[in-house]
Amino acid sequence: MKIISKLDRKRMGIETYREEMRLLQQLDHSHVIQLIEYFETKTDIYIVLEYCKCDLSIYLKRKGGYLKVEEVRVIALQLINGLYYLHKMSWFTMISSYLMPWWVQITEADFWLLGVVLYELYVGKTPFRTTSLADLKHNIMEEDIIWPREIPNEFKHFLQGLLKRDPVERMTWSQLKRYPFLLSLDTEENSLRSSTSTLS
């Protein structure tokens, strides 16, 4: 259960949460945590989410802090299928002619975050490491990513496509679904091909 206080949030912030809850109530996908219940009091918003049995942090500790590329590939497919579903549901709740500029940019931002997560799962560390927020911003904008020598080229190229600094150069859905790194795994391949066929 997640409890959000209304007292320190502006009215628009509360309305945003309500809109998100309305969308979450419509979601039904095996790779998306489901909303079980949502209710409000005068002071708080209560969100009850599906219990996730898999604790990735514990699993990573057991594996030495990082995963094999085959394991990352499976997780990547699951994340992408769930991510596409969320984008599709968001799209259908809006009329395309009235889409806001920030929504159009969400895919590019999500692909960047996906790249960061998959890099960390394989390497055991984030691609931009520092203790200072200012240094972190600088590293993200200016510094090259350090790639382990043992990383397979196919996986490296896949991550590079997600971690392009320029959003315009980043992968699109149509490029993602045909990428060899993903399609070399039979599990969920057909699902990925068909589910992303309407996005470019």
TrEMBL record:
What GO terms fall under cellular component here? cytoplasm
Q: Keyword set for this entry?
A: ATP-binding, Kinase, Nucleotide-binding, Serine/threonine-protein kinase, Transferase
Q: Which Gene3D superfamilies match?
A: Transferase(Phosphotransferase) domain 1
Q: What class of enzyme is it?
A: transferase
Key word Endoplasmic reticulum present: no
Please report the stretch or stretches of sequence annotated as the Protein kinase domain. 1-182
Species name? Coemansia brasiliensis
- EC assignment: 2.7.11.1
Query: Which GO terms are recorded in the biological process aspect for this UniProt protein?
Result: smoothened signaling pathway
Q: What is this protein called?
A: non-specific serine/threonine protein kinase
Spell out the reaction equation it catalyses.
Answer: L-threonyl-[protein] + ATP = O-phospho-L-threonyl-[protein] + ADP + H(+); L-seryl-[protein] + ATP = O-phospho-L-seryl-[protein] + ADP + H(+)
Q: Which InterPro entries does the record associate with it?
A: Kinase-like_dom_sf (IPR011009), Prot_kinase_dom (IPR000719)
Q: Does the keyword Nucleotide-binding apply?
A: yes
Q: Which domain of life is it from?
A: Eukaryota
- The membrane spanning regions, by residue number, are none
A single GO molecular function, which one?
ATP binding
